[in-house]
Amino acid sequence: PAFDLVVRNGRIATAADVFACDIGIRDGRIAALGEGLAGREEIDATGKWVLPGGIDSHVHISQPSGEGIVMADDFASATRSAALGGNTTVLPFCMQESGTTLRSAVSAYHAKAEGECYVDVSFHLIITDPSESVLGQELPALVADGYPSFKVFMTYEGLALTDRQILEVMEVARQTRALVMVHAENYDIIRFLTDRLEQDGRTAPRYHAASRPIIAEREATSRAISLAELSDVPLMVVHVSNREAMEEIRRAQAKGLKILGETCPQYLVLTAADLDGLNMEGAKYVCSPPPRDPASQEACWEGLQQGVFATFSSDHCPFRYDDPQGKLTPKGRTSFRWVPNGIPGVGARLPILFSEGVVKGRIDINRFVAVTATNHAKVYGLYPKKGTIAVGADADIAIWDPELTRTLTHDALQDGSDYTPYEGMEITGWPVLTMVRGRVVARDGVLTGAKGFGQHVPRRL
Ligand code: DUC
Ligand code: ZN
Ligand code: ZN
Ligand code: ZN
Question: Which positions fall inside the Amidohydrolase-related domain (predicted)?
Answer without folding.
Answer: 49-441
